[in-house]
């Protein structure tokens, strides 16, 4: 390629990066505003000094684990009402002092939010509580404009809600899957994921507060998770039935690898403690590449063999792409260029080629590796999170390899995603489109969609775009940008 | 209405009934041919006299419960191959006697069938095993042209497969949800439905074979079911969590009511034994009529109050219609015209009005009674079974009331159903359409779709249409047909 052509191509790429940086940054602000406006439970955690008759606010629920209560002064009656409180209960011209309330940091988040943010169910899903706490802390810690006390306060309130209520029968570590608004367990899953998001939340809370109780919670839960996965799963309550195959869902080593990175960040001791675990997780994920390297399968036998039937043929392209960027970060930490190339090929290009709908665009939710019809009713729907994961994966792949094909894939996915999932009217993204791209569910949050995939994607993309752009003017870094 | 007009209307109705009788009869034959050709496991249950190395055919799996083995002589090598056997294993010009095989009645059905009947998974779902046994026996017993030995043999083989394998830890009665091809348990549900379909299968097997062992299985399982539902559910393995509402899914009293009718048919002793239970079930189902009679809700508290949140607002129009015809038969048995009118109003007309898609026709799968967006991804899809249940409900409603509006609804649903779900090319019906009526899953059978709803609908409609037509020429029965 001639020098002139290269400079022109580099200039174009620089403009693309600049334009996307602005779009994702603005979108991150809009998305976070949606969650901060609509998802905070105004009631649990706020109590009048003299007690309050409503369940969850009485003095018997005073915090034991959290730090000192802080006094808050509502700025106006409408502010009070925005917390769901009837001002008549709290004060009058004769007794204005009743407007003081004690902040009890035990609150949690609503995640069942309609298109405009209306709460349509007050159940609190533990995955989503943990994820939202993590997201708030991460933004507070990493993105200057989000270093705002209201994020930190809400994260602490959510974290303390988890500390107090997530475990079903403390001191046992098994957490519920979903809790009532005031924290009573409704359902328990026989998997590790509630506990994984609990761990992420606690570790990130420790990073922003410095409160070591959060960190000891995180580390203890991590030990429990490793025990369940690698030594003895019986504490999860799973039945071992004679006909059940010993299948490994890719999510299990993926989540543990994610936690290895979470706990090991700037922490030499924990990074060393979990180094072997990280390699084990990466090896397990890589076992899901099957069919002579031509397919990523969601479930394989623990020894890496392909499983029979629908279970064995099941594919989830968005999940493969998410595993892709988890593995790519692992390859970066290890300084392993072969692994980097393998991951880009098998966990990014391959799932995109097979999983992208050639007729209507977008990533299929599920596929069957033999091209048979999946049995999941939603297999052809387009969900938000595979697309946000694909955006992260391709931009990270491009950042690490400089391959402009990966930047083009990022743009292709991001254009589709911004066009189809964004809601310019009320903010946040729709989660569930039909195959043709029409909104199938108008909810913005639900049992599996909270404040996590969208802002994580936007914040990570903004950070990566920033880093790419700050490498200097394109003419300065031709080898990095667009050289091939 | 003048006499001439009435006769003309009656003539039109008579022609409609006649035309539908022919359509459903022909369709029933086509549908049953599909299942008989593709769903019989050719391997398990067929063994050579000298044993066979394949799992499941060795002498150690010889039957203990079933009646004498019968000798079969395959009519040709291709016949043998149609059972999935390699003739080379079994015989040669030198040893043709090896072509004899022993029929071991322990076989079960494949239900994971692709569009053309291809088996795409060999797992055996217990609900669907029981339902197919029941369907074969019911047709054998009630429809003259299905009184064929191959139906009876297959039903017995399926029943013996259930007898031997369905229970997870015999003599405990809890059944698996899904088994491997050779009968090892893969998953267990903490509900009563596997056991309900087991009971239906055993009772119907007894009716066609006279073998009392089947009936004692049915009656013992029924006692267990009543104990779980009305006395102590702990044997089901459900956790009782402090935040879980004591919700009653409508399916539970529906299934028990179905069993009360099944066991009590032409059996004065059992009909008397379960009379009170039948009334209890009907009362419990009627509690699901909420909102001042304006809605049927799928889940209510055990005391009949509406539940909070999505769970409480959940509606399933097809299920309400199915409950409608269960209750209508209960009203007929009781000779209760008020209940009959109530049921037609609340469980037929009401769910149709709210559940029928005004834009694209067809019944929604799920709805939220407040018109909010359901959280189930498949809520707007059109599934086969709500439509087959609606056909039964409206034709039964018409048969019992003579109201031509119900005949019109039957025709509306049946026209949509035959147009959208039938597969003229390969037989059986598609199960899953998108909201617009396009086939979303091409499978003909799967974990929840087997040989049950479609042939039950067609056989019941054929029987009802026959009965309506045999009431004589329309001019003879003007009060019944079209009088209002």
Q: Mind explaining what this structure looks like?
A:
Two copies of one chain form a homodimer. Chain A has 484 residues and is mainly alpha-helical. Helices cover 51% and strands 8% of the residues of chain A. Chain A contains 16 helices and 17 strands. Chain A has helices spanning 3-38, 77-82, 87-90, 126-142, 149-165, 193-209, 212-231, 251-264, 268-273, 275-286, 309-313, 317-334, 337-355, 384-401, 404-421, 453-470; strands at residues 46-47, 70-72, 101-103, 112-113, 119-121, 124-125, 178-179, 185-187, 247-249, 289-290, 295-296, 299-301, 314-315, 367-368, 382-383, 432-433, 439-441. In chain A, strands 1-3-2 form a three-stranded antiparallel β-sheet, with no helix packed on it. In chain A, strand 4 (112-113) and strand 5 (119-121) form a beta hairpin. Chain A is globular. The A-B interface holds A 112, 114-115, 120-123, 168, 176, 179-180, 183-188, 239, 241-245, 308-310, 372-375, 377-381, 432, 434-435, 440-443, 446-447 and B 112, 114-115, 120-123, 168, 176, 179-180, 183-188, 239, 241-245, 308-310, 372-375, 377-381, 432, 434-435, 440-443, 446-447.
């Amino acid at each position: 390629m001639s020098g002139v052509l290269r400079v022109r191509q580099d200039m174009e790429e620089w403009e693309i990066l600049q334009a996307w940086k602005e779009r994702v940054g603005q979108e991150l602000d809009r998305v976070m505003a949606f969650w901060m406006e609509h998802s905070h439970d105004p009631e649990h955690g706020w109590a009048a000094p003299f007690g309050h008759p409503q369940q969850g606010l009485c003095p018997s629920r005073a915090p034991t684990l959290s730090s000192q209560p802080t006094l808050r002064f509502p700025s106006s009656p409408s502010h009070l009402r925005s917390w769901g409180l009837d001002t008549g209960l709290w004060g009058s011209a004769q007794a204005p002092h009743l407007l003081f309330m004690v902040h009890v940091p035990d609150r949690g988040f609503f995640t069942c939010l309609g298109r405009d943010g209306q709460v349509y169910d007050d159940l609190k899903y533990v995955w989503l509580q943990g994820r939202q706490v993590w997201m708030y802390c991460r933004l507070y810690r990493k993105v200057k404009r989000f270093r705002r006390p209201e994020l930190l306060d809400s994260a602490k309130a959510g974290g303390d809600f988890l500390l107090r209520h997530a475990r079903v029968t403390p001191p046992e570590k098994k957490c519920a899957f979903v809790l009532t608004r005031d924290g009573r367990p409704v359902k328990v899953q026989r998997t590790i994921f509630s506990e994984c998001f609990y761990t992420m939340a606690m570790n990130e809370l420790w990073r922003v507060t410095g409160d070591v109780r959060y960190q000891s919670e995180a580390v203890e839960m991590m030990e429990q998770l490793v025990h369940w996965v690698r030594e003895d799963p019986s504490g999860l309550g799973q039945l071992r039935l004679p006909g059940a195959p010993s299948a490994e869902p890719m999510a299990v080593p993926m989540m543990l690898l994610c936690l290895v990175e979470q706990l090991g960040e700037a922490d030499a001791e924990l990074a060393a403690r979990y180094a072997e675990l990280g390699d084990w997780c990466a090896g397990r994920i890589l076992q899901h590449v099957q069919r002579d390297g031509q397919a990523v399968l969601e479930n394989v036998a623990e020894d890496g063999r392909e499983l029979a039937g629908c279970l064995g043929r099941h594919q989830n392209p968005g999940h493969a792409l998410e595993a892709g960027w988890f593995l790519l970060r692992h390859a970066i930490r290890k300084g392993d260029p072969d692994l980097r190339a393998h991951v880009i090929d098998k966990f990014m290009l391959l799932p995109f080629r097979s999983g992208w709908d050639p007729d209507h665009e977008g990533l299929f939710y599920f596929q069957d590796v033999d091209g048979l019809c999946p049995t999941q009713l939603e297999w052809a729907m387009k969900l938000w999170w595979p697309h946000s994961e694909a955006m992260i994966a391709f931009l990270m792949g491009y950042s690490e390899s400089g391959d402009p094909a990966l930047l083009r894939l990022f743009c292709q996915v991001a254009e589709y995603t911004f066009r189809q999932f964004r809601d310019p009217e009320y903010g946040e993204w729709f989660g569930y489109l039909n195959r043709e791209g029409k909104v199938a569910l108008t909810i913005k949050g639900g049992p599996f969609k909270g404040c996590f995939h969208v802002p994580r994607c936007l914040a990570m993309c903004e950070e990566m775009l920033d880093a790419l752009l700050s490498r200097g003017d394109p003419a300065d870094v031709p080898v990095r940008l667009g050289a091939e």
